[in-house]
Amino acid sequence: MWILSTLSFLVSVLITPFLTTLLCIIFLAAIGKSIGVRRLYVRILLMIFEYGRQNIESAQNGRKLEEESDDEGYSESTNNTPVDEVDSNKHNGTHKNGYIPNSNPLISRDLILVPEPPTPAKKSEKLVEKSPDNEISEKEEFKDFDLSSVVDYIKVGVEAIIEDEVTSRFEAEELKNWNLLIRTNRHYEFISLKLTILWICGFFLRYFFLFPLRVLICCFGILWMLISTYLLGKLPEGAVKRWVNKRVYIIAFRIFARSFIGYINIHNKQYRPANASVCVANHTTPMDVVILSTDNCFSLIGQSHGGFLGLLQRALARASPHIWFERSEVRDRHAVANKLKEHVSNPNNPPILIFPEGTCINNTSVMQFKKGSFEVESVIYPVAIKYDPRFGDAFWNSSRYSMLQYLYMMMTSWAIVCDVWYLPPMHRKEGETAIDFANRVKSVIAKQGGLVDLVWDGQLKRMKPKKEWRERQQEEFSKRLKSE
């Protein structure tokens, strides 16, 4: 009985501040204002992470001294055998600040396998030939095939087996320091009593206060979207409906962003996408739409879904023009391209938001952009999004987690902190192909976001490389071995 009495007392005491906090968050999200609580929250977290880093470092230094003393004792008892330098280097380098790098130090990415011209023989080895006119000419003789010619390809193949550039882009970004979110097998099981107490306090904060608060905020945002878009659907088409839709749309996504404690820094607002244009961005998570929609109203494009996601799609489509295509149209590029051209031809339509990568990448790189978005004769507004992984992993691995699992992980993380850069609009140059234009836009986004610019197709995580890609590599290899 005393347990129930204690719980009822705690609920009665905490329910009022809890509901007050909920209403304040929703109200501030609706008007787009902030009183600095999220900024203070992020700063406090950074201070705690730094404190944890120092504790991890001191604990590892203590462990290092113990091992060195043990090694010295062992070396004295074995005729002064020197201590293994590999172990000391291991503690001095790779384990610094509690970080164990994911990549193998034997792997290098500076080797680019492209066709090279045949290597001519030395001057003294040149052959002398007589032409039909009895003129003497010299003919260069090239080196024959050598077994060492394949070593470079063997090296690249072994590197790809150990750690390839594509697969590593679909794993969680490696952290340099522990963010107190999970316990791993990287010497974080027990470091110190202080850190353990911090982790327990953070666990209760995230699961027993932040998580229910975030769920309630998200539910309110969903209700707001469903009710407001239903009412908007009753209004006649015109300037009034477009104006109201823009406000309702932004308010709904600001509430969604608050449910993840989204702390968003937006740069270069003068380059905000205009109506009847195409906005392209790198893709990390479905939350990219929420992040960008807190500042502007967009039309979305994507595949039609059922269930809860389909409910939201139909709600959005009632209030503003969006492009949802059926599964049968996914491979019909012409049908999608025609819908895009039709959308951007109307100056009253909001900018359409597209993620040309076609899949989520772990925010360490930008992968191949599909050219379909760049075949439309419209101005392109690039946007770079960079998440801070210290507060939570925003990457959605759709092959591993369902949408509900992913949302649960996001709502039990510390926060979603990111930077958004609007970039100057870009136009397709005369004579430039859609592929070249897509690569030019991709490189601009990668440079601004501090991401690696990769040529690989993100769909490789779901399918095998195309046959023509393998044939192209074989052709390149044959050119390297060719002797004339």
Summary of the model, kept short:
The chain is of the alpha/beta class. It has helices spanning 2-31, 37-76, 85-92, 151-162, 193-232, 239-258, 287-293, 307-319, 333-344, 403-411, 434-449, 467-481, and strands at 127-130, 136-139, 262-267, 278-281, 299-303, 323-325, 352-354, 365-366, 380-387, 416-422, 452-453.
What's the helix and strand layout?
Layout: H1 2-31, H2 37-76, H3 85-92, E1 127-130, E2 136-139, H4 151-162, H5 193-232, H6 239-258, E3 262-267, E4 278-281, H7 287-293, E5 299-303, H8 307-319, E6 323-325, H9 333-344, E7 352-354, E8 365-366, E9 380-387, H10 403-411, E10 416-422, H11 434-449, E11 452-453, H12 467-481
Parallel strand pairs: 3-10, 4-7, 4-9, 5-6, 5-7, 8-11
Antiparallel strand pairs: 1-2, 9-10
Description:
This protein is α/β, with parallel strands linked by helices. The chain has helices at residues 2-31, 37-76, 85-92, 151-162, 193-232, 239-258, 287-293, 307-319, 333-344, 403-411, 434-449, 467-481; strands spanning 127-130, 136-139, 262-267, 278-281, 299-303, 323-325, 352-354, 365-366, 380-387, 416-422, 452-453. The strands form 3 sheets. It has a 7-stranded mixed beta sheet, sandwiched between helices. The chain has a two-stranded antiparallel sheet with strand order 1-2. Strand 5, helix 8 and strand 6 form a beta-alpha-beta unit. Helix 1 packs antiparallel against helix 6 and helix 6 crosses helix 7. The longest helix has 40 residues, at 37-76. The radius of gyration is 29 Å and the shape is flat. It starts with a helix and ends with a helix. The model is unreliable at 74-106, 110-129 and 136-142 (pLDDT under 50).
